[in-house]
Every structure is written in structure tokens, then in C-alpha cells.
Design a protein that fits this description.
By secondary structure, the protein is α/β, with parallel strands linked by helices. The chain has three domains: about 80 residues, Rossmann fold; about 150 residues, UDP-N-acetylmuramoyl-L-alanine:D-glutamate ligase (3-Layer(aba) Sandwich), CATH 3.40.1190.10; about 140 residues, Alpha-Beta Complex (Protein-Tyrosine Phosphatase, Chain A), CATH 3.90.190.20. It contains twelve helices and 17 strands. The protein has a six-stranded mixed sheet, with helices on both faces. The longest helix is centred in the middle third of the chain and has 16 residues. The radius of gyration is 21 Å and the shape is globular.
Amino acid sequence: MPPLDGRRIWLVGIGGAGLSAYALLARAWGAEVAGWDRNETPYLAPVREAGIEVTISPEPEAPGGWEVFVSSAYPDVRGRPRAELLADLVASRRAIVVAGAHGKTTTAAMIAFALRETGRDPSWIVGGEVPQLGANAGAGEGWLVVEGDESDRSVFALRPRVAVVTNVDLDHHSEFGSRAEVEELFEHWLTDVPEVVRGWELDPLDAELAVPGEHNRRNAAAAVAALELAGLPRDEAVEALGAFRGVGRRFELVGSAAGVEVYDDYAHNPQKLRAAIATARRRSSGRVLVLFQPHLYSRTLYSAADLGRELAAVDVAVVTDVYPAREHALEGVTGKLVIDALCDARPGFAPGWAPMLDDGVRFLVRRAHPGDLVLTVGAGDVDRAARAILEQLERS
């Protein structure tokens, strides 16, 4: 009998990367699933294809007789937290959970990809687009691979067979008071997990990969360690990962026009921004131009100085206003904080301040020359800027 047979599950925020994946897996495992979101999202196409009814409206109206689970994006809606549903899914199968401040999406995708490529028929829930997997969720008969999330502490409710922590950092300033608190929570969680991989204890994988950057060799090392614990021989794991081409919005080539290559990256904190810029430098012999969109008011407030220092390493920079996501505005906190920090870190540099994304696009297009590499960066809607830049370059 399917593990969720007979359950009726209604999801608030079903269009998000997380709940859309939960919806697909719950449906495949026997539950009747439906849900609501305020807006259309790309994640809803496979949800509807799976026969799941989706309601788009200004406010949710949960039907009677259904279990209601709520995304962290809608904290004012009544229902059970999404973490409880994910905990049910993890408890239903042998599971590998990947967590950490940086690299967890890519590492989880690497593990799921390698298991599938080697015929192990995994299930997976990954918080990003993985073209080689076809969707952010899949249902097989083997291991379940899950990307955990510490931003709302939901990962600490999961009880997997194998846990991977890529690294530990203070990345969610509205949820945690210090890095020490995050470290303590992770270590407490890991005491209940039979097999543990700590990514920072591993050397970067010394093998040929299709994905660039030192950070991806570290992700691959953690993936291989987890795959070995899941019973996959190391040589098979390494060979499979050599064919892995990455996750959407992880230094993703969007296209080229007028002699300019345009890439897009999800980087939203100083460490990820540093890795993206370093990869751009290695990839291009020309100038590096960056459009950066800060993500979350709390993160911008606490990380502006570090973000500005990382942006000081590029040739041309423009910063937009903050993408709020789930947060309300904080007085005095705008993307201008990052600009000020950049100017302090590199006196004489003249970055662009473009509160609106479209203004940032025009700023970079006017300054891009053949041989340059343009990089749009952030966890909000900045990905649409990359395509807009390409369109304008093609017309120039």
C-alpha cells in the first residue's frame, strides 16, 4: 500500500519550490492532493500535469475535511507547518537529507542524479530546477533524497538515515541570533542521525566535473560521501557526477549577444556571491559586470558590509533595491546600504544604484562591450533581468 494512501492534503503556497515538490511526491505516494497559491509560478506546471487541482486567488479558503499544510511564505494562514508534511515523507522511506548554508540544492541534486544514473531509482525533493532530473521532485522505489531547510528550522524535525551538512553559517538573521546557535542546533540534530557527512571535513573532489568552481568540487565531495553511505561504490558515484550539468540559476549561461556572455546565479549571501564572482573571473578573460539584487531586509541589514566587499572585486556593479520575499520592510534598509559598503571598500569606484530592476538592466547594457561577461545575481526575481539584458543587447 502506498505510504500516504487515504490522506487528503491541501497545501497553502503550493506554487513554491518546496510545497510543489511535496505535492508531487505526496500524490505519487497515494494521497489526494490539492492546493492554493496567490500567483502563478513555473513550479505549477508539473503539479497540474500530475492531476493536482490548484486554486489561484487573492486569499486561501481551505476545504473541510482536508489536512492543511502551510508554506512559511504565508505565516498568517491557519494550518500545520510544511515541516510536518516533509517529516512524514522522510519517515516513509530510507532518506538522505542535505542541509547547510551553501550548496545544499546542488549537493542534493548531485546525489539524486547519481542514484538515478546508476539505476537506483530514487525519489527526490530538491528546491531548484534540475534539468537532468526533469522536475524538482520525483518518486521512485529507492532512497529518498531531500534538501532540508534551516531557515524556518524545519530540517531539525527530519529523521533521515543519512544527513549531509555542507557547511554552517549564519544566513537567516531573522530566525537565529548567532552562528553559534546554528551550529548548536545542527549538532543536536545530528546526534539522532545514524550516518553523518560534514562537508567541511572533506577535501574537494579531485575529479573532472561539468560544473565549474571550487565550491562545486566541495559539493561533489559531500555527495560522494553520502552516496557511499547509501551503498553506491565510490568509482560509480564519481563517474556519474562527472555528467552532472548543474541546477538552474547556479552560474547558468542564459545566452550571448553582441559578443557578451550573460549568466545568472542564485547567490544571495556574501559567500555565494564570492563564489559566483570567482567563477566568472575564471570563465572570462574580459571584464565582469554584475547586477545584484539584495534578498530579505534582515539579510541586507546584517550582511551589507560583506556584500559590498565582495562586489568590490568586479569591474562594473549595479545594485537594486531589496527583494522582500516573506519579510516586511525595515526602516532605513534598502539596497543603498550595499552601495555604501561597496564605496567604502573600494574608494573611487562608481557603482550604479538602480532601485528598479529595469533600470539596472539598462545600466549594464549601456556599459557592456564585446568580450565582457555579465552576471545577474540574487534570490528574488532578478533572473528575469538576464533575459532582458540579452534582448536589449541583441537590439543594440
